[in-house]
């Protein structure tokens, strides 16, 4: 192909194709939110006695051809394009409807449900009011809703983020700091923010039992820190019995990972709980 008179290519066909693909994906995702192609999958969260105390909701996109698209393939695009706000609102309203159903069912009542809140959603001034409205509409106990927030929300405006967190805390919902240790964690802010739960990122858990003892030091230090600050400490990405034993022996309160269950359709999660003695 000729690259123009000066030998300068103004249009890179490959780049153009990828821009087209992105636009198409963006249109399809907007449509998917409208037409109900998103699904919540639930991954169990377990306490030290093996009881399922709740679940994290993880979104998937079930396309009309039956393929299940993982969030890594559309959440970043949703964040860049602002679609994350309607997507997040869909997750939130699904979560509250689900919690309302659980409350009415003795086999499921008392379990909490954690949802992921993206920075754009967190910064939306109407977010707290929306939660309050949905809690009231569904008559859900606020303590059963957990909001997972990543450190990135503190990057730009710590004061504004702190105010939002305090507003959310005042609603009585549970607040979890997600992916702890991977971002811009500052011990100074951790102590003054109203988090109820710290989630140890799975990359630290994955490196336990490797010859490198430094990762054990990081994990045990996060657990000790969380406990000192009277937060619950949850380890993500627990895959092996050795990781489970190590974490529990060092005082970690809650565990989540393939060892206890992969993210699964809601009905499957509920069936498993019904087969379990009440927590
Ligand atoms: P995350 O919040 O850190 O979620 C944990 C991810 O680790 C999930 O990936 C989960 O399937 C995976 N995982 C759980 N246990 C294990 C394990 O034992 N081993 C390994 N290797 N992986 C494990 P998933 O479902 O693909 O979600 C990826 C990310 O997408 C999430 O990371 C979260 O940041 C984002 N995401 C998912 N759902 C939502 C949502 O509704 N809203 C927003 N804003 N983000 C979401
Ligand atoms: Ca999460
Ligand atoms: Ca609180
Ligand atoms: Ca995480």
UniProtKB/TrEMBL annotation:
Domain EAL residues, every copy: 22-277
Parent-record interval covered: 650 to 928 of 930
Species name: Tepidimonas thermarum
Protein name according to UniProt: Putative signaling protein
